[in-house]
Amino acid sequence: MMPRPTIEEVAALAGVSRSTVSRVVNGSPAVSSEALAAVQRAIAELNYAPNRAARSLASRQTHAIGLVVPEDTTRFFGDPFLASVVAGISARLADSDYILNLLIASDDPGGKMVRFVRNGGVDGALIVSHHASDAFVDSIADTVPVVFGGRPTTVRQSDIIIDVDNAAAARGAVAHLIALGRRRIATITGTMTMAVSVDRRDGFLAELADAGLQPCGEIDGDFSEQGGADAAALLLAQPERPDAVFVASDLMARGAIGVLRSAGLRVPEDVAVIGFDDSPLAAASDLTSVRQPMFRQGEMLAGMMIDLLAGHRPAPLTVLPTELIVRGSAPAV
Description:
The protein is α/β, with parallel strands linked by helices. The protein has 13 helices and twelve strands. It is about 40% helix and about 15% strand. Helix 1 (about 5-15) crosses helix 2 and helix 8 (about 165-180) runs parallel beside helix 9 (about 195-210).
């Protein structure tokens, strides 16, 4: 028996990369017409078929979409941002023929997840909360169409992204604090392996620089409530105490406010605080926060994936609006 031709042999004959062959085989529209034709000719000449049981090229749909979350379960189930995005995704898929498969990386570095996707578990993947170290995401993107919720750390030409302008939103929050007369402004960032954290930190620094101010501290809070509390404790241990803190998520802001108040400080009189997301806990705790349309982002992630799987090509980047919602933790003058 002749050995089965490999995907590498198809790529070599077609004169394209292995990932391009994967995209063609898996029906991704992110392939040029020239490459598509070359790969199809090579497949026909070599009589190549993917090593996949019970799925042929003509009938490969599972009508399942994977939500890939490279986080542990504590972060996933405890973060109001992720909860709102998932609610939006579910609402959009409810009107379609697709079901949602939740793929949480947790302690697995992506091995099982990649095998599941490569073996045809889903038709496409939505990727949120992406870290620079999540190399397995590239393997998923080489296998099925993907849409990113939030800018990945490395953007490829074929990527489709739904995001907000995190840097501009951070600048607006800091400008509000400066307008309140605050001059010793610190920030509690998210995990700095994520583009969203870098963008919010960069916006914070840029607005301070334009005002001729230096940051009064910059601590990573890991996007968790405990991380926000620990970061606030470190800020208070500095020689100079901040009179305002821009916090990159509402969850971290809640942890930070608890520590500030435990230290006998008044919010906002002694320290003004602004969070990010405008999740339900922001309204419950009278927290000034940057509102981003989390539910809408989820709806659009699912809608764009449905469009991709139908053969359409959405815009590569969609930027949704943000708004500063002013409450008691940093009230207007």
